[in-house]
Amino acid sequence: MLTVGVASPLSENTLYTVTVVGEDLVGNALSGPHSLSFTTEGPAPDTTPPTVLFTTPVNGAIGAGRNTLLEVVFSEPMERGSVETAFAILSPAGLNTGTFAWNAASTVMTYTLPSSLAHGTDLHWQVTATARDVAGNPLVETLSRNFRTMRQAITTFDFDLRTSGPLSAPDFSRQTSFYNGANVGDWSGDLSYRLFLGFQMTSLPEELVFIRQAQIKWWATGQRGDPYGKLGRLLLEPVDVGEELPTSTSAQRF
């Protein structure tokens, strides 16, 4: 009986063939089969194609940031070079010179754009089926995505009559619900006036992300004394007054 060993462990799930050649002590050649084959045990080869689990921004997103990062999350570790080659921004032109970054597991690819996008840009990008996992399996199908960056627009709207008008202090009341003039600052009888300007925000678009700048235009028709010298600059601050400013025909001191 002949026992043959191996110098190192055999590879998993691999076919091996052993060939025996020899003769007996008097020189007669070995007869019969000289070869045998066997397959080692081990995990089955990876034949499952990778898929894309998630992308950022999501497909069809509206209002993405102008410097947004493009992120692709795969179902398994990917061969990085093949994915980067398969990736392309189809439109607008001139955005394929950005940089790639990966997580340690090679399952998340992040692409940084070479420059900021313009407001309201429609961007279309893809990863073709030539992208492969580390076992060489191609992507199930070409991935195509698009999104739009935030638009920039100017909206003008009037103040709301019910939540606008001057209130005298310290009683904090007004005699009429009609807005026909605005008093601000010191008056007489140890009273001062605080002006409230209310706005209904329903005219703003639903997909509004944030307000970059707001301006209030106010024309002064008259001025008594030197209010800015005594009181300093006007101070604007947000206040929640509810649905309507309170009215009263008599002072109600708090």
What's the arrangement of secondary structure elements?
Blueprint (H helix, E strand, L loop, with lengths): L14 E5 L15 E5 L12 E5 L4 E4 L5 E5 L5 H7 E5 L7 E4 L5 E5 L9 E6 L15 E7 L9 E11 L15 E2 L5 E8 L27 H5 L23
Parallel strand pairs: 4-10
Antiparallel strand pairs: 1-2, 3-5, 5-8, 6-9, 7-8, 9-10, 11-13, 12-13
What would you note in describing this structure?
By secondary structure, this protein is mainly β. Among the domains are: 98 residues, Immunoglobulin-like (Sandwich); 73 residues, no CATH class. Helix content is 5%, strand content 28%. The chain contains two helices and 13 strands. The strands form four sheets. Strands 3-5-8-7 form a four-stranded antiparallel sheet, with no helix packed on it. It has a four-stranded mixed sheet with strand order 4-10-9-6. Strands 11-13-12 form a three-stranded antiparallel sheet, with no helix packed on it. The longest helix has 7 residues. The termini are far apart. 9% of the residues are buried. The mean pLDDT is 82.
* pLDDT < 50 stretches: none
Structural class: mainly beta
Largest sheet: 4 strands, antiparallel
Order of helices and strands: EEEEEHEEEEEEEEH
Q: Overall pLDDT, averaged? A: 82
Radius of gyration over C-alpha positions, nearest whole angstrom: 38 Å
Shape: rod-shaped
Q: Helix fraction?
A: under 10%
CATH topology descriptor of the domain at 52-149: Immunoglobulin-like
Top CATH class of the domain at 52-149: Mainly Beta
**How far apart are the first and last residues' alpha carbons, in Å?**
110 Å
Number of strands: 13
Second CATH tier, the architecture of the domain at 52-149:
Sandwich
Q: Output the strand order for the largest sheet.
A: 3-5-8-7
Our estimate of the beta-strand percent is: 25-35%
Counting DSSP H or I runs of 4 or more residues, the number of helices is 2
Domain SbsA Ig-like: 2-40, 46-149
Organism: Myxococcus llanfairpwllgwyngyllgogerychwyrndrobwllllantysiliogogogochensis
Keywords: Signal
InterPro entries: SbsA_Ig
